[in-house]
Specification:
The chain is α+β, with helices and mostly antiparallel strands. The strands form seven sheets. The protein has an eight-stranded parallel β-sheet. A seven-stranded antiparallel β-sheet has the order 3-4-13-10-9-6-7. The chain has a four-stranded antiparallel β-sheet with strand order 5-12-11-8, with no helix packed on it. The longest helix is centred in the first third of the chain and has 16 residues, at 132-147. The structure holds 4-nitrophenyl alpha-D-galactopyranoside. Residues 44, 67, 162, 192-193, 229, 263, 300, 341-342, 360 line the site of 4-nitrophenyl alpha-D-galactopyranoside.
Length: 484
């Protein structure tokens, strides 16, 4: 049986929009293809169409790898990605290979595309050939049937402290911002990294002397939903958690704590979420935050729970992650919004309301040094956030696709007006709007533009890979991303 350029493997079963094949490994011929859709592992990992003739490079330095993409495949000398991949031909046709189970890797070259479930697991593959929008649309529908959906109403419009204040937050500063936001139609006021005692110790730090419940109450009084950031699957060596529970650390085959990344001035490590005491700790931690009054939770650095390592229970790593995330979602309860960040994409579907679909944005366009010389495309930049988020908008039927915040301020911002507009338009196309600008930084016309943007909910029509119609206005991201 043929499907475009390829012979379908024996046992392929026709389903809506494509075929399904149950297998550990699958290989499809794809002679003549020139492009490959690479889908990075987690929120920050790069997703884009690349030229198959591009060299395959490893991210440098190695310590950077755990937080940039799936480190298990960092040195594979072949183009590849996680969960799904696709070949593209000059005539616009696409051969998509996507997993309907966790733990899948997809690699390709100019002869074909191959998929493999890790650890010799068996699962179902979805295969489709045709125009890009149709094949990805059909795959998204199958994923929706497989994993379901949490939430689904209109995504809340959130003000987040990160891209304005970064870690320099305090009770005092945030209350000032809260006052300044009066009159702007935000649904959520989200306190990001910087409130906690340590990474692992999720209690109010010194800059929040009145405590987190008091802050939540002040936010709620304005009519906005209090939101809070935390990273429940990691810990830093300077935390009490690390000192008190070294046995909760995910370790490698020689017993060393697995490196989950380097940030906050040093290394940080992953929790082994299959440890028998983790369930109670996770539930207690998240319920405490809910009891303080926060009902929008941005859970970050989640990939750590899915890193390779030796676990207490011999569960495949993405399954260990998904089970821990399910516990977290349950602890948070259905009455609260769960935004997953730094999260393995496929393994999070159905359990979260929102999902960050790209790396961090920034009030500047490119992080060229890191990208070119360290081969790391995941450094913060507006360009990187737009590039990867754009390549993941096919996920929109499954989850609120968060492309990270847009900027309206010209103060403390190096973006050109066109670059700022591209970020604002992308959020409209993605259906998730966020901003971190301090109200005191906005010129009157910028504040007005922000208010207008928050107030609109355009009809979105896709016009190809990088083009959209937003309420009749044509928007094309090609020019601004040219060469990317
Ligand atoms: C808070 C931030 C913000 C942001 C998140 C996440 O690879 N890294 O070193 C890396 C560090 C921080 C980071 C992403 C990657 O940002 O995406 O919105 O919440 O944490 O620390």
């Amino acid at each position: 049986m043929r499907l475009g350029p390829t012979e379908l493997p024996a046992g392929a079963r026709a389903v809506a929009g494509g075929y399904e094949v149950r297998a550990t490994r699958i290989a499809l011929a794809g002679g003549g293809a020139t492009r490959f859709y690479r889908h990075g592992w987690q929120s920050w990992s790069e997703a884009r169409w690349l030229d198959l003739s591009e060299p395959v490079v490893s991210i440098e330095p190695p310590e950077r790898r755990p937080q940039a993409d799936d480190p298990a495949y960092a040195e594979v000398g072949r183009h590849g990605g996680s969960g799904v991949g696709a070949l593209g031909w000059q005539d616009g046709s696409v051969l998509l290979l996507g997993a309907l189970e966790l733990g899948a890797r997809v690699e390709a070259d100019d002869r074909g595309i191959e998929g493999c479930f890790e650890d010799e697991g068996v699962g179902v593959w979805f295969v489709a050939y045709g125009p890009e929008e149709e094949t990805f649309g059909a795959y998204a529908r199958r994923l929706g049937e497989r994993f379901g959906r949490r939430g689904g109403a209109q995504a809340p419009r959130a003000w987040s402290s990160w891209y304005g204040l970064y870690r320099s937050i305090s009770e005092h500063t945030l209350l000032e911002v809260l006052t300044g936001l009066h009159g702007l139609p935000f649904d959520v006021f989200q306190t990001d990294d910087g409130w906690q005692q340590a990474i692992g110790d999720w209690q109010a730090g010194d800059a929040f002397p009145s405590g987190m419940a008091a802050l939540a109450q002040r936010i709620a009084e304005t009519g906005m939903t209090p939101g809070l950031w935390l990273a429940p699957f990691i810990m830093r060596p300077d935390s009490r958690l690390y000192r008190d529970h070294p046995d909760w650390l995910l370790r490698d085959s020689v017993g060393e704590p697995v490196l989950a990344g380097v940030n906050w001035g040093g290394p940080f490590h992953a929790l082994d979420t299959t440890h028998p005491e983790m369930e109670a700790w996770l539930t207690e931690t998240l319920q405490r935050v809910r009891d303080w009054g926060f009902s929008f939770l941005k859970l970050d650095f989640l990939y750590a729970a899915a890193l390779p390592g030796v676990r207490h229970l011999p569960v495949p790593r993405e399954r260990a992650y998904r089970e821990a995330l399910a516990l977290a979602a349950e602890a948070i309860g259905e009455g609260a919004y769960l935004l997953a960040c730094g999260a393995p994409i496929l393994a999070s579907l159905g359990l979260v309301d929102g999902l960050r679909i790209g790396p961090d944005t920034a009030p500047y366009w490119d992080d060229e040094g890191r990208r070119r010389w360290l081969h790391d495309p995941t450094g913060p930049s507006a360009r990187g956030a737009i590039l990867t988020s754009l390549a993941r908008l096919w996920l929109r039927p499954l989850v609120d696709t968060d492309p990270d915040v847009a900027f309206f301020r010209s103060r403390y911002d190096l973006l050109t007006p066109d670059q700022r507009l591209a970020g604002q338009d992308l959020a409209l196309a993605a259906g998730v709007k966020g901003c971190s600008d301090l109200p005191s930084w906005l010129l009157p016309e910028e504040r007005e533009a922000l208010a207008g943007w928050l107030g609109q909910m355009p009809n979105v029509t896709r016009l190809g890979r990088r083009g959209f119609r937003l309420n009749g206005r044509r928007v094309d991201f090609s020019a601004i991303l040219d060469g990317a």
